[in-house]
Structures are given as C-alpha cells and as structure tokens.
Amino acid sequence: MQLENKVAAVTGGTAGIGKAIVEIFLENGAKVAMMARNAEKAEKVISELGVGDRLIFIKGDATSQDDVEGFVDRTAEAFGTLDILVNNAGGAGTDLQPTVDLSDEEFDLCIKWNLYSTFWGTRRALKIMLEKKWGRIINISSMEGKHGKPIVTAYTTAKHAINGMTKSVAREVGTEGVTVNAICPGLIVTDILQTNGPKTAEAMGMTLDEMIDYFTSESAIKRPNKAEEVAAVALLLASEAGAGITGTQLSVDGGTAQY
Predict the structure, then answer these.
(1) Is the CB of residue 237 less than 8 Å from the CB of residue 245?
(2) Which CATH number fits domain 7-188+226-252: 3.40.50.720, 1.10.3290.10, 3.40.50.410, 3.40.50.2000?
(3) Model-level pTM greater than 0.90?
(4) Is the pLDDT of residue 93 over 90?
(5) Active site includes 155?
C-alpha cells in the first residue's frame, strides 16, 4: 500500500476527511496537491505537515468548473503527471430545510458542489490517466448515497448520483488500468460539523448531540467514524493493493448501510 512516486490531487484537502487523506498519502510516499478556498488554512496545513515541496496548495472553489479542471491541470504541470484523484470537496451546505421549501438555487448549488465537481475532476483526470494506462479515482460519497435522511434532499440526490457515476465510469475504463471507486462515510465529527451541525440539528428538531446520536444509533459500533478511518480505505484504493477493486461504494459508516 505504498505510494512512492505517485502524484495525488485532493479537493477539499485542508480539513476533515480531505486533510486525513492528504496526510496518509504523504506518509506513504506520494506527492500531493490539495485544493480549497481558504489559503490561510492551507498554509497552516503545509507548515504543520512539514514535507517540503511534496505538498502544494492550489486555491480553488469546487463549484467552479474552471477551478476544478484547472486544479487537475496544474497538479499535473507541477509534478509532471497525475496518478490519483480524490474528489472530496462537497457537503450538505447550511440551507437545510424540508423539500417543500427547498429553492432551485439551493438545490443547484448543492448539486454543483458535490456532483458536478466530481464529474469535472473525473473527466479531466481521465485524459491523463487513460493515456498512461494507470490511475485511481476516489469519490467521497456518503451513507446518504445509499439511503436517505430528512432535510438533506439535495445532498442525498447528489451522493446517489455520484455512486451511479462511479459504477458507470469504472465499467468504461476498467481495461485501461484505471479504477474508480466511492467511499461512503458515516457521520464524521469534524470542524465543519461543529460549525454547520447545529443548524442541521435545529432543522431536524434536535440539539447537535441528539443529532449525532440519531445518525450513529443505526450503526453497529454506536459511535461516529473518524476521518482517519476513511483515509485508510482511500490509501488501499489508491495503491497497487487496491488494483482489483473498482466500481464499488465502500461503506465506512460503522455498519449503518450493510451493503
């Protein structure tokens, strides 16, 4: 599961699951580019990890096609190639409400942030990977990509679509040395959850702690997952050890969706 001489690009790489994936890829020898909107946070991560020029930051917004495609191109330019793409950027946003009250604009933004960003990055990366006949595309989906919860209609729709895209693209490129997989995490307690979670919980008529209990009560382990647990699966999928795994939606949700 080593990544020596591999180049990885990770969207949303400065916090939460994205940061954990950046860290484990670097620990296993990869060169990594990370994209995010907050340059100050990125510089802090670069300083904290202290791996020199093996880690670079490219500022970008996952809702912008130019930014996402440019991120793929600039990663390949900086390191000479691209081997691994992790489409991690996304989320449920903060405008969470019942479907009957969901506006077109709010729905579109969530779809663009999650689904379109994954599509744009995948399409661009495949141009590089298919030419070299080696590549790994890892889409960070969600347990909401397998079943649903109230108040997150747009997010659930996007994640189901990402899982479908994963299956289709994997079938297209399976004989070309490229694997395409999705990881479906359960609830992860991150800074973003602490910031945006109370509003989600309020929309569901709960406190944040009650919402966390609600999301984890259906799991086998009865606790939130950790970002590092998702990153470990990403490492497997990115490495030669994962060469036989493609088109899957691997749950890292403590046994919530047991399929």
Answers:
(1) yes
(2) 3.40.50.720
(3) yes
(4) no
(5) yes
